[in-house]
Each structure stands twice: as C-alpha cells, then as structure tokens.
Amino acid sequence: MNSKYKRTQLTLPQNTSKLLLHSCCAPCSGEIMEALIASSIPYTVLFYNPNIHPQREYLIRKKENKTFAYKYNIPFIDLDYDKDNWFIRVKGLEKEPERGIRCKICFDMRFERTALYAFENNFDVISSSLGISRWKDINQINECGKRAVMNYKNIVYWEYNWRKNGGSTRMIEISKRENFYQQEYCGCIYSLRDSNKYRLSKGRDIIRIGTKFYGK
C-alpha cells in the first residue's frame, strides 16, 4: 500500500464488528480491501460468483483474488462454482440488456448466498465490491444487498459508496501496480456474447480470455 495516500477513516455501521466482504474480482476489491486495512477493520473475503463463464475465466479471477487476499493475510472463503443453479435462475432472460432484470437476479443470488454464509458463521455485516465499478448500477446493487439481509435480524448490509473519495481511481492504480488480469466483460456468458458482438460491429477483435493485464 502507498503510505503517502491519505484515506478516509472508515467505521462499520450500526455497532457491527465482523465484516464479510463479497468480492467479484481482484481489480474491483483491491481498493476496498486496502481501504479496510488502512482503517484497521478486520474482515473476511467471500468469493461466490457462479455467473462467471467460461470456467477458465472464473478460475483466473478467483485465483488472482485469492492471491491478493493472502498477500495481506486476509481470510478467503471460496464457495462452490454453482453455475447450474445460476443458469436456472436466469433462464428466459438471455436477451436482457446489461443492468436489466438478469443482473438484478444475478446480484440477488450472490447476495443471498453471502447473507446466508454470514448468518451461519456469525458475521453481523456484509458488503460487496460490486458497486465500485462504474459499469454497474450502484442503486440496483444496494437494493439487492439490502433485500438479502431482510430475513436476518442480526445482519446489516453496509451501503457504502466505494467509488467516492477517489475510490474508482485508486481501483485502477492498484490494478496497474499489481498487474491484475484485466477482464473485458462483466462475467456472464451473455455479457461476453454482447461484448463480442459490439466489438465486431466496430471492427475490433473478439475478447481473448487470459491475455490482457493492467500493467502491460
């Protein structure tokens, strides 16, 4: 971490003390993880992203996230690659646009699993790295997060805007510093399809999985 960078001092909400951070990937979570460390907030990272396809892409993102967590001795929970259940949940929504109802259902699925794990393992607050990306609808994400904890009276969803105070800029800086893998689509097979369709319409080559990195 850059010791010269002055961060905002963070505090957990509503007298909570045990944070479970859902992470979608290392580039999105890197800034959040370092911000939590700088504020001396203990936390555990949970990786549950059955939306990511193909499996090669999933494994690249997971391995990189796990490696970064271990660099700072942060506990890392690796849950199942529940892709079959994901496809069942989004069946019939294959042609939905990005930020549409398919994304909402995808967020719901990941937040529900995060909240359940939190309940089963005595975490009292959850948050996610999903909202730091400018490609996502932060209001949609927060609504899904709040909905996921409604059935658990002792769990709070931390609705913090990780983009503010230079968070989005720091996200890119850390990704370049760490030479993170630069994924070029959200993660699901339909996002990959639509991204490639757009690229071809602009005369660009299709996405090559596992080849592009921030530091290069």
Chain-wise SSE layout:
Blueprint: E1 19-22, H1 26-38, E2 43-47, H2 55-71, E3 76-78, H3 83-89, H4 101-120, E4 125-128, H5 138-148, E5 156-157, H6 167-178, H7 189-201
Parallel strand pairs: 1-2, 1-4, 2-3, 4-5
Helix pairs in contact: 1-2, 1-6, 4-5
Q: Can you tell me about this structure?
A:
The protein has 216 residues and is of the alpha/beta class. The protein has a single domain (19-202), classed as HUPs (Rossmann fold), CATH 3.40.50. It contains seven helices and five strands, in the order βαβαβααβαβαα. The chain has helices at 26-38, 55-71, 83-89, 101-120, 138-148, 167-178, 189-201; strands at 19-22, 43-47, 76-78, 125-128, 156-157. A five-stranded parallel beta sheet has the order 3-2-1-4-5, with helices on both faces. Helix 1 (26-38) packs parallel to helix 2. The protein is globular and about 50 Å long. The protein starts with 18 loop residues before the first strand and ends in a 15-residue tail after the last helix. The mean pLDDT is 94. Keywords: 4Fe-4S, Disulfide bond, Iron, Iron-sulfur, Metal-binding, Oxidoreductase, Queuosine biosynthesis, Redox-active center, tRNA processing. InterPro entries: QueH. One of its GO terms (molecular function) is 4 iron, 4 sulfur cluster binding. Its EC number is 1.17.99.6. It comes from Candidatus Pantoea edessiphila.
